[in-house]
């Protein structure tokens, strides 16, 4: 009895391989390559917060006008808030009584500020972080006296606390943004 060597695929094996290749090709075309990772989304969010701060700092230093009639605001303010539907509001003022909102950054539910703290220059945490339950922190840029004033709504001691720390989160990641109101430097960790 002579056994013949098998050198080819059967029709069924060929059909199975072709269907597997079609399934892999269909799966590969359905992959969304433009989707951002959670870490990338958080990086974009922290960059938006940093850019907002740096823009206001530059506007206040360069006396940039914002209206058609070339009026120059005397003060700029950034409010970091938990209670205004998670927003950062940039405002200007021509006097201390009227603040005009110039930019509002609304958070998506994916990225949010989970915690806001005050720190002293000696890296000691403020007692007001524990004792106070207010939900809005403000930084005021005042060109007239050539320094950055901080108004913390009684969240921080304005004579001691000079660093505002924002902890930003999303589903999987977190970052810390520290805003130093003495040297105007913003750090992301």
For the residues shown, what is the average pLDDT? Answer: 76
N-end to C-end Cα span: 78 Å
Rg from C-alpha positions?
27 Å
Tell me the number of strands.
9
How many independent structural domains?
A: 1
What structural class results from the helix and strand content?
alpha+beta
Identify the strand order in the major beta sheet. Answer: 3-2-1-5-6
Order of helices and strands: HHEEEEHEEEEE
Helix content: 25-40%
**Low-confidence regions:** none
Main sheet attributes: strand count, strand direction, barrel closure? 5 strands, antiparallel
General shape: elongated
Number of helices, where a helix is a run of at least 4 consecutive DSSP H or I residues: 3
The share of residues in extended strands comes to 25-35%
Structure in words:
The protein has 189 residues and is an alpha+beta fold. It has one domain (38-188). The chain has helices at residues 11-29, 38-62, 128-131; strands at residues 75-81, 87-93, 99-106, 112-120, 136-142, 147-151, 161-169, 174-180, 186-188. The strands form two sheets. It has a five-stranded antiparallel β-sheet, covered by helices on one side. Strand 5 (136-142) and strand 6 form a beta hairpin. The chain starts with 10 loop residues before the first helix and ends with a strand. The relative contact order is 0.15. The model has no long low-confidence stretch (mean pLDDT 76).
């Amino acid at each position: 009895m002579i056994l013949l060597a098998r050198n080819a695929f059967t029709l069924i094996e060929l059909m199975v391989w072709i269907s597997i290749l079609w399934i892999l090709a269909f799966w590969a075309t359905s992959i969304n390559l433009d989707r951002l990772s959670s870490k990338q989304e958080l990086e974009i969010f922290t960059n938006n917060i940093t850019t907002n701060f740096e823009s206001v700092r530059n506007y206040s230093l360069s006396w940039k006008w914002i209206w058609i009639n070339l009026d120059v605001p005397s003060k700029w303010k950034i409010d970091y808030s938990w209670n205004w539907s998670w927003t950062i509001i940039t405002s200007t003022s021509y006097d201390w009584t009227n603040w005009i909102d110039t930019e509002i950054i609304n958070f998506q539910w994916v990225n949010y500020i989970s915690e806001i703290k005050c720190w002293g220059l000696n890296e000691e945490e403020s007692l007001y972080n524990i004792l106070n339950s207010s939900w809005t922190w403000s930084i005021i840029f005042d060109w007239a006296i050539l320094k950055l004033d901080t108004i913390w709504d009684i969240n921080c001691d304005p004579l001691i606390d000079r660093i505002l720390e924002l902890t930003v989160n999303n589903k999987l990641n977190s970052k810390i943004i520290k805003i130093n109101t003495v040297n105007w430097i913003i750090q992301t960790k």
